[in-house]
# Entry
Amino acid sequence: MIAIVGGGVIGLSTGWYLARSGERPVIFERGEAGRGASWASAGMLAPNMEAEPGEERLTTFLLEARRRWDKFAYELERASDISLDYRSDGILMVALNRDDVEYLRSHYRFQRGLGLDVELLDSDAVHAMEPYITADVMAGLFSKNDGHVDCRRLVTALKKAFIDAGGVLREHTEVEKIVVEDGKVKGVYCSSGFQSFEKVVIAAGAWSGSIGGLTAGVKPNVRPVRGQMIALGTSGEDALIRHAIWGPPRNWGPTYMVPRRGRILLGTTVEEMGFDTSVTAGGIFNILRGCREIAPFISDLPITEVWAGLRPGSEDDAPILGPTSVEGLYMATGHFRNGILLAPLTAEVLTECLIKGEMPEYARSFTIGRF
# Structure
């Protein structure tokens, strides 16, 4: 039998893939499934826009994940009968001054050098796409293949699909220790006692490294990285913005706006604050300041929700996947800001590892052995 420790988007996706392959995996979740970092996410699917110098290997992996999303979303909506509000109509980054324009041009050259499908736009073209944003926009960078998904609908759908496929979900059950004997997994110890499993997948996000029983070499060095978010209410289905819009980099961090049904999400902060999920005045101020530069109209919209989540960051901010030196122990953690994007690809990789005993070649450089 297979145990998955963690019921976020990674654990649920992996569990669903395993269950529909004929396995009967058990997911252990310390709280309510899908209500951690996955629930807090803006749901970005943005390998093109996320591409950064020095992360070319990761970008290639993210592009592999993006190519799977159309099929993944279609199959999950059919399996769960829940709409994901999945959109693949592109992401726009805007420039508000000359420094921003130079950044966009530099980013464009780097992205085009990787063969990514991005386009530089003048101010008229940007306003044709987004007529309600500030008149101060000087240029834009558009990635038509990027998109986003409503992550709360996503995890709700995954939870239903997983259970309907025969998976077992044990919420409010914290795994305290992975039991290992003679270099081999024997099971897990949780609040209800010891349970025997032949294989265990660690998918506990920022908490992955705090699980007992994991020794040097197989204990993932994963840290929590706080991100604060704001939701603004809109009138009915008014499309005040049509695409996810990213602001240029600022010294207080990145900002973006994401359209949802009846609201707009604003984000986000990137903060090394341990496991503190407080929403702070400074964090909210910086998000509002950055987004208001892009769209002054947000000043008149009501704040309907504020929250913070903890992204699981690894030493190199890339995921930790696949087998370890302990027989029967597998990793699916450290996805940082790309957990939603990487969910279907992670599920595919782990399913191949667990059922076929093979690590796909394109994922081999992301095992814990690289550290």
Observations:
- The longest strand covers residues 223-233.
- Residues 2-82+151-222+315-370 form a domain with the FAD/NAD(P)-binding domain fold (CATH 3.50.50.60).
